[in-house]
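User: I want to check something. If I give you two sequences, will you return the structure for each one separately, not as a complex?

Assistant: Yes, each is folded on its own. Here is the first sequence with its structure:
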Amino acid sequence: MKAMIVSADTARVQMLAVPLKANDFQVEMASTAMHAASMLERSQPDVIICEAVLSDMSGCDLHEIIRGDPSLVTTGFILLAPEKPAEFEMRKHDLVMNPNSNPTDIALIAKRLVQEVLTQVNSEIRASQERAPSIGGSLDDADLLNLVQWLAKSNSTGKLVIHMDGAYGGIYFSQGRPTHAEYNGRIGEEAVIRLFGQASHAIQGHFSFEKLEPDALDLQTRTIRKSLFQLLMELANFESVSR
């Protein structure tokens, strides 16, 4: 999980960073709204904790920029303000917290916001499991790595479901880009790496791919931030370490 703190108050940033890291967040910091905006495309944080008053624009203005980006529509946003500003348009995954709140409480709320998104994704997966697959077959006949690369090159949108040795895994694609994955209790990029690793020596397995319309599910929800190329590079490193 990734958290971004937007504040010029160094002491506050440090107080917030400690409990966030203790709750499994990678923490990035920005001292101004423009600095934060320049980092968003690369960082794709799961939650943003922002001061209401910044040197270049208000936290409310930054919030509107973020909510205007479709790839950040499910990013949690916590505005640190004594009370809700009149211009702050509350939307799903938004909260206002007093800046004097206990930093640990703020970190726990941030974690809850991220978990709510993951719960939403998992419910979408369960709701779509009864749909008939568009393609499918045995992993003996189709290498998982080649299959994923084909889905990427063909700009496919849908859900790839893999069953191997009694375990279930799933990868969502939006126009060929992996956006979410789960496997054996793991979520996101780690789930993809573990799926590939298991597929290389699975005794038996089969797959199905269900094509979906872009608006059939909330495919903007992301637990995968890296490109397929980056994931394949990590897989090569993972396999070399595992040997």
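And separately, the second sequence with its own structure:
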Amino acid sequence: MKRIRVFFSALAAILLLAGCDIINPEEQIPAYIYIPEVEVSANAGEGTASANITEVWVTVNGSFLGAYPIPATVPILEEGVTDIAIQAGVKDNGLGNRPEIYPFLEAFREDIELGPNEVDTLRPVFNYLNTVNFALVEGFEVLPHSFQDVRAGLESQVGVVQEGAFEGGSSLRIDMDASNFFVEVATAERFPQIVSNNSARVYLEVNYKSDVPALFGLIGYDAAGMPLPGGAQYEAGFRPTAEWKKIYFNLSLLAIEMRGEEYQIVLQSAIPLENGTPSLSEASIWLDNIKLLHF
């Protein structure tokens, strides 16, 4: 009888251990890829390689893993040769709550031999897709430049300057003062067919610094070349900054809703008022590397 009790006690212990393994299986040790930085490469005719890629969107063997802020450490539960696809992410209109895959950059891909607890470092370089239409590439290096004052009589200063240029030899500077504290400028050129039946992705890339807030938008025209009702419509903008920054304006929805045949890019800004008086005696906006992209 004693032997039977010992047998069943041993059997119970074995079953208990086996049950623990089923309930709490041994955890798989992940491999890691580390992405400290990324770059954008631009070919001739594609303008600057300046970029503000804030996240990487990672796909492993065809399965989406997640979006990770740069620098990124990404755990991967795979072993052996693994297909890693990385897409560039930006903040639409500069908003922290609007992360998006930037649709005009090709995914970076690499096959990596992964092992448990091993770390592989990747520094992706993103290229523009060969299907992208660069409707506007303006670096303000050649005159005449693309932007003009659209409010006659304000005598606002819109011109190319060398001092403080972002890159290359020059940038655009828009000057305001207490007498001319409001400005609205637009491209001299109109851009047709930026919204197609196949794709409605329209973005404006801008490098900027500014003493005052500014808004970007579109002026639409119908098939007869007449302005659409409502005039200029604005989508988003930027805040004052003393340092050069890069922003990606998503104009897709605005262009679709306007239903224009042609569009101008338009910027509006003003020195903020305090008690009805301009808060600054003078202010400037600097712009560089403006690109209008669509499919």
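Because they were folded independently, the notes below concern the second chain alone. Residues 202 and 251 are 5 Å apart (CA to CA). The chain has a mean pLDDT of 91.
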